[in-house]
Amino acid sequence: MESALLAGLQGLLDGPSHLELGQIVMILTGSLLLYLGIAKGFEPLLLLPIGFGAILVNIPLAGLMEKDGVLRFFYDTGVLTEVFPLLIFVGIGAMTDFQPLLENPKIILLGAAGQFGIFLTLLLALALGFEKLEAVAIGIIGACDGPTAIYVSSKYAPHLLAAVSVAAYSYMSLVPLIQPPIMRLLTTEKEKKIVMGIVKQPVSKTTKILFPVVVTIAASLVAPLGTPLIGMVMLGNLMKECGVVERLKHASENEITNIVTLLLGLSIGATMEAGKFLRLETLMVLGLGLIAIVLDTAVGVLFGKLMCLLTGGKINPLIGAAGISAFPMSARVVQVEGQKYNKKSYLLMHAMSANAAGQIGSVIAAAVMLSVLKGMGIG
Amino acid sequence: MATSVIAPMVGKILKVEKKIGERVEEDDVVVVMEAMKMEIPVVAPVSGVLKEIKVSSGQAVDAEQVLAEIE
Fold this sequence. Notes:
The structure holds two protein chains of two kinds. Chain A is an all-alpha fold. In chain A, 73% of the residues lie in helices and 0% in strands. The radius of gyration of chain A is 22 Å and the shape is globular. Chain B has one domain (3-70): CATH 2.40.50.100. Chain B has no helices and eight strands. The interface between A and B is medium-sized, with 14 and 15 residues.
């Protein structure tokens, strides 16, 4: 009896005795993500479930990512099938107002320019020895758009999913720190002070309703493999603009997005097992992701300078920084920076146009990449 | 001659920082408005005396709406 009791008590020590150094490091990493989310307010909706998932999956013998484990179920059901990021896209579409873009359509060019960093980083990742599909997943961090990064990496490089998503979401919240030095460096005093006129172009309801339908058809014909991405964003937006499916729109931007965000975050955290995450390539992904965002910002601002030149100084190049997708953070950064140099400069709405263009731009960039890869026989 | 302080974008007035009759310098904040969940300080385009304030806090304003007059 006594020996049975002792053996039973011994069982309680199994967990701690199986704890390895790597798992301790990952539990601390998970805790750090919790800290950043809770105390620092960095994308808490995602970093909290990711951090907690990372802790759970590194508990020895718990088997949450083994066959029949609960996190394995979430991962297989939602991430491997790409269903979770796609559902998030419906919510994003339902929350995004493309009005600033429709008021000022020429700004859409900045949304395209803001995606060049993705392609430059892709080339850099290839040069560093990453596989082609891995390089695509890494480059897409530069889109500064979490769900797009998750979608592309779960499709092409699921083993890099955790690193790519943590990089994408961390850098998104660091946009107010990452972008201003680049913006200051690349613009002259005179350019920083440019005042842009007030945007006041009425946009009809019909235009707003047609926009998601036309963009879906046009973009999907050019890049068919991106149809799930663009289609879901635009479906959400159509529900928002048409005004007749208020319940569906409400559910998409609230209940569905909230539930999926929780399960998606946990699933991503669940891929952070010590043996798979603690590798040199994770650090390289984090480094390249930062480079991608820096390059996107730089190309956006440089393109803004070109537009400034072509319009005879009517466009403040600072708004080019908002061509990345981090919506609406980068537009706010532009407003703050612009007003630092000229108190009479109100760039917010112009930057919002660029930012909304960047939102579509990142999805289209991903779609184009998927289709080009397919055309090359990769993927 | 009066110069208008106009709303640079659609939004809501959060705070009126100056009083009628008060002297304002160019670039002084006259009104703080909120747009896209962000506080936007709207400054005086010229120096002068604030002759009229046409809005109050909480009020929704359109782009180019006149907020105040400086003389």
